[in-house]
Amino acid sequence: MIKKIFSIIVVIALLFGGFYIFNKQNNTKQDVSNNIVKENADKENIDEKSQELAVGKIAPSFTLKNLNGDEVSLSDYEGKIVLINFWATWCTYCDKEMPDLQRLNNENEDLVVLTVNVKESKEEVQSYIDKGNYDFPVLLDENGETSITYLVSAFPTSYFVDENGILLGAVQGMMSYDKMNTILEQIRENK
Question: Where are the membrane-spanning stretches (predicted)?
């Protein structure tokens, strides 16, 4: 009898606790959403920043500086398939994936591998790229804003965008060359 009463109390506590946490998370998400909306309202380019990140829709546009200090936009690559790869120099899986990204970029004229380093110094990134002999485009997301727009929560994270700027999908985590190539072939088949 005592076990039953104890079990009932535990179940009730879990239900109320779960309800409390769910409510707290929703309120926190709402507060964060309100802050983001308020911050975006203060920016001149609100239309550009408020694009929805969804498969089948236009990929959110961005403009970042490359390692030469030139501004590069996603729209600069219209007409090509774009693999946007978010990464960091300290990321072991990013490091393992880089040679395959380079190979894929070299072997496919209709594809551009556009790597976006998140919140690291230009010098650190340049040193890493030079050491690896990589020559694909490298952009610097110095304040992390673009990675937030693209909901990046782990490195590496890659997005595939078609020739018309439509977001086709995302892969969180390291991809092998074979997986990259398979996805690229599927994109070509579905044109």
Answer: 5-22
